[in-house]
Amino acid sequence: MQDLEKLKKAKDRCLDDLTKALPSYVNTLMNIDPRLLAYVEDAISNNGSHANLMELLGIRKELRRMASYQVNPSKVHTAIRAIEGIWENGRHKKGGLKFDTPRGNRHVRLMPYQVWCVMGIYGYLTDVDMERQYIEGDELLPSEWVKDGEVWDTRRLTSEIHLFQTRKSGKTEFGGAIDFIEVCFLGPANGQALICTNSAEQSQIAYKAIKDFAMQIDPTCINRLGGKYFRMTAKGMNWQPGHRMKGEIKCMAAGKTPKDGLYASVVHADEHGQATYINGRSDMQAAVETCWGSTGPRREKLLMHTTTAGNLNEGPYKSKLESVEESLLRELDIPLDGQPHRTEDDNWFAFILQLDKWEITDDLDKLDNPELFKKVNRSIGITVQPTYYRERLHEARQSEDTKKEVLTKDFNMWQGVSVVEWIKPDVVRALQNDKTIDAYTGAGGWVIFTGLDFSQGDDLHTAGYLAARKHHSGQGYELFADFDAWIKQDVLEKSSIRPLYEEWIAKGWLHVSPGAVFQSSLFVKRFDELLMKGCQFQYFGFDPYQSKDPINTLKAYLQEKGVDQPDKYVLPVSQRNAWFNAPTDDLARAIKSPIPYITFSANPMWPWLFGNCVLSIDGKGGASADMDLGNKKPVKRNPGSDSCKVDPIQCICVGLGLMTEYESKNH
Fold it and tell me: Check: CATH 3.40.50 for 425-664?
């Protein structure tokens, strides 16, 4: 979990950086379009009260890119003109596209934040080494040039954009406009825009805007044989045969994406945030990857995500957005001094509208704040009024389903996790014996699969041991679960249940790691003891988050013991519900079977741990842990409590997952 105080300090620092640096960028912004400066000044005004940290970091990144790459004002002007046309004295004169507004279909000027997004897409150029030598007489593209006998190409820097906005912000229609102008005006003659969505119905929302744009230029295009320029079908648009332009736009619904005949220049992943994992697979993500893979050698390809938050706990885009946010936080480590500073992440642009992490709440009264309305929707006061949000908050008070919808779609808060009761402490207590893992040796036919959680934080640092062997009847397995856990000294001293921990420590059920950082040698020493007693280990699965040092120590120990390739046996494990789904079901089945085939060690912490534990079910999760819907994972009942720990249970689930992998390799 991110440290909220650190994030607050990061926002203060970012605001300070932007305030000090902005004067140096005023002329550049004004020369491109005055609305760029207006957007930035508004975002940082009033101490950033209506701009979230990620939006501000996105602004900081753009100013850095502006100083690091060649700026391309003419392409920005061309794109803006293609969308909004030519305006004089506040009145539309000619050209551009009409948009659906509260006053009907009209030409509108782009809002400052939309101009900022256009700038993020088209505003920068980069030089690409074509890795070929120039030979006299070679035909070069207009954008190619020769340096020291090598061919270089100057092309658009941005190849991916993230528009994370709430509904009623015009994101899908804006994305449709980018699709349309790329295929019809700005892109290659054979451009292809593919709109990827979770369903055929969703693809029609973006496509409706494109049909409207096409009909403005060619009103006859909806005729069965097409019009003067375009030919429209239920699922796509293309230029009429014989026209010099050969581009097309196609709708691609998840699960129905062809693998042949695609050569995309633009991939528009609309409502990508709704894509979830079902049994470890996402149909929409597969469609996006297929379409993006078809871009091949395109010079200036573009992957565009337009989405709100989703009704899910985890999904491919949610994970992607988390990595984007982590990258934006690293911007604070790069000077904003007007000098070139390039990074590997400079190929993408992000416009993220959401509440700051410390403002996220389901208290509807706290959300009734005009500054928060603007923080999640930059169209407030223009295409949508504050009364809309107040009405939605009123509706949210009427039912939990409506509340969930409002929090997700109107405030961009990820929702969708059902939390249900799971396995009671008394059930586990009845399955405990008087043994520990030390007694489950290879001589007895036992193989041990170990789940490791050494990530830095306030949780227990845990090695969970799942011992398995064939049942004496020859049918199925016998399982045994035990663990070793360490608590850091500084965490122990601050714990609200210190007396209970100290009781377990005195009896040897819990161990202490001196200081404020987990000592990697403690587990390796314990592992060595178990090996000396004859325990046979097969796989180790670990949570990769901040666990580099303990895992490297384990691998080094294995190499000392003669294991040539420890990476084959020490494996990173995803912490997503999708990965945990099957082993969570396996653990419940082993415990709840008419004749349980798992026993637990004598450690008195086991019933306490299961009392802390509930089941998180994402996606289509139901009200019962036995319902085979959604992806499941055991989690803390009270995530904010320092006395609520479940790490050993999760480690046993990891062991079960590793055992399944072991079986699949026919050992």
Answer: no
